[in-house]
Amino acid sequence: MAAEGFWNSREQAQKLIEESNSLRNKIDPLLKGEKELEDFRVMVELGEAEPEALQERIQQELEKDLLRFFKDLDALELKVFLRGPHDRSNCIVSINAGAGGTESCDWANMMMRMYQRWAESRGWQVEVNDVLPGETAGIKSVTLLLTGENAYGFTKAERGVHRLVRISPFDSNKRRHTSFASVDVIAEIEETSSEIELPPNELRVDTYRSGGKGGQNVNKVETAVRITHIPTGTVAASQNQRSQHQNRATAMKLLLSKIYAQRVDEQRAEMERFYGEKGSISWGNQIRSYVFQPYRMVKDLRTGVETSNVQAVMDGELDPFVNGWLRAGGPLKRMQGVKDEEEG
């Protein structure tokens, strides 16, 4: 980075800066933790030499500092679990309403808000690439791009079917309804990536007018882009950007990511739970239940992590569920099994 011609290629320089920051984010917390641990040892030795009247106060301060230290240590430990090939990448989250009609469309919209708040609380950027509104309320589907370090590594824990139980605001008889929505998470693959290449003759590009808010161009120019991979029928679309060129680049990234995820699934049948079919978006396939009535509880059916603070979860407090999934092993044991089998 100190070389004379470092900034001659801005794109290459940016990649090196990101790599440098990533390495610092791994090393600095470790060095900081070691220094704090040594400070604690010194503090204990000094406290033992103090009169009894001061020892109790020093102990209270030490316990307070240790709570913060253990919290930072837990966060550092979680990063160790993120060792997949694309865990550091940005990720693409697709939310689709399932069984339940208007109820499920509203639930999908609530989930979109939940993930937006969770991502923002982690310092990630959120971009809505494509959204299909519901006929009465909510959304039928939405595609979000989460940009930030380890975005895919953490968000992949959310892949699956999510179930909501509540008294319906759309039912005049105030009956309890069950709604479903599915979440799909894939790592973002750059168009320049050498991991996957798609010949131009395998792609069909369609343009259309964007919907929703967006200024004068929305109803005059076909800025939205839909790209179809003809051999597999995989479709990716983007209408959030102001120009057709930007939407095409975004849609291409999304398509590459989808195709890559499909190929990984074909190569590793053991990873079907994370990259392959999630089952129907209905009863019996959910990974997490959100119950608003008759009691209040959110429970992850894979790890047993639960909380009665439903409002906090809907406001983006998903870390306990994500961290619990990572600590329980997540995909690591399966990945290690696949790796051992390949090496064998």
Summarize this entry quickly:
The chain is α+β, with helices and mostly antiparallel strands. It has nine helices and eleven strands.
What does the largest sheet look like? 8 strands, mixed
Strand content: 15-25%
The percentage helix is 40-55%
Helix segment tally:
9
Strand order of the largest sheet: 2-3-1-5-4-9-10-11
Give the total of beta strands. 11
pLDDT < 50 runs, ≥5 residues: 214-219, 270-280, 332-344
What does this structure look like?
- With 344 residues, this protein is α+β, with helices and mostly antiparallel strands.
- Helix content is 43%, strand content 22%.
- The protein is built from nine helices and eleven strands.
- An eight-stranded mixed sheet has the order 2-3-1-5-4-9-10-11, sandwiched between helices.
- Residues 214-219, 270-280 and 332-344 have low confidence and may be disordered.
